[in-house]
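Predict the holo structure. Ligand: coproporphyrinogen III.
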Amino acid sequence: MNTTFLDACYSKKTSHTPVWYMRQAGRYLPEYRKLKEKHTILDIVRTPELAAKVSLQPIDILGVDAAILFADIMIPLVGIGVELDIVEHIGPVIKHPIRTMQDVKKLRKLNPREDIPYLLETIAILKKELQTKVPLIGFSAAPFTLASYLIEGKPTRDFLQTKLFMYTNQKGWHALMKTLTDLIIVYLKSQVATGVNALQLFDSWVGTLSEDDYQTFVLPYTKQIFESLKNENVPMIHFGTNTAGMLSSFASVPCAVISVDWRIPIHKAWKEIGYSKAIQGNLDPVLLLSDFSDIKKQVDTIFSSLPKREGYIFNLGHGVLQQTSVENLKRLTEYVHKK
Ligand code: CP3
């Protein structure tokens, strides 16, 4: 097994810099688009053989050092019966958005073996297939990002309803955060019990908050998630975008790795995070639509900005875009491996 990714999470020396890409299993791959002609994303997630196949595609095609479970951040909500759809080119759309304390109280607990047996089965298949290959990353959204979809009912730019709920219904907000925190802990523990080797917590949209509000309304819950999983003995990654203004708070949770986007240079981010944690990032995914010479230049800049090699995991600052050329991603992986 290629353990470079796990070793780097624990800041150990590795033979090469490990690489994986957020959204490495997805629409930029012709093999995935072919499956999508016949199945919706939720169908694929609910069919373990298909979900496992999609997770494995980038391992063989790109040569990356880790696999990520094919699912979506909405799956634990699907598990507890929240009515939603994942709409092509839009994202998650919730039938009855949460706007009151009564709505929050309707969310029930997750029982993974009954509610999401397909996901556990996918992990079991992947564990077998990956045995001699690479580690498997499990994941969940963090409470804020999950709450933003539940409250808005759909993707948003300004998070108006989310912030209004947070400011004007603080009791409702804290009840929602607590409910989601408990749900996420159960969800992640079930993934570890079934065999994932690492976990990433996606707080994709939390950068919309001020650092003060982050500390008051979000951080205690995120901290509780990482605390509750500390004894599971898998490295954990805390991911966010637009976190440059709150990085020391964002990084103050007990996890092994902090993932940063392209808005802050690695050397600046790492200094703020502290060198006892590993760091992941941070190429702008838009650059992948450019010529390889431009990509190479930026990769060189990233590497020349690294204060040390141990504890560095190469990734993008956010997910692979659909328009990305497979060839560029393949060449990028090889280029980083030779660095
Ligand atoms: O390869 C992987 O990363 C594993 C699979 C994965 C998916 N979603 C599959 C997916 C992962 C890790 C996610 C996480 C996810 N989903 C996040 C956190 C990461 C991030 O990008 O910030 C978020 C915010 C979502 C919610 C979501 N789901 C969005 C915004 C979209 C895109 C809508 C669109 O069509 O552009 C989705 C749909 C989705 N999830 C797709 C995939 C491959 C694409 C649509 C499809 O194939 O039908």
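Residues 170-194 form the longest helix (25 residues). Residues 194 and 296 are 38 Å apart (CA to CA).
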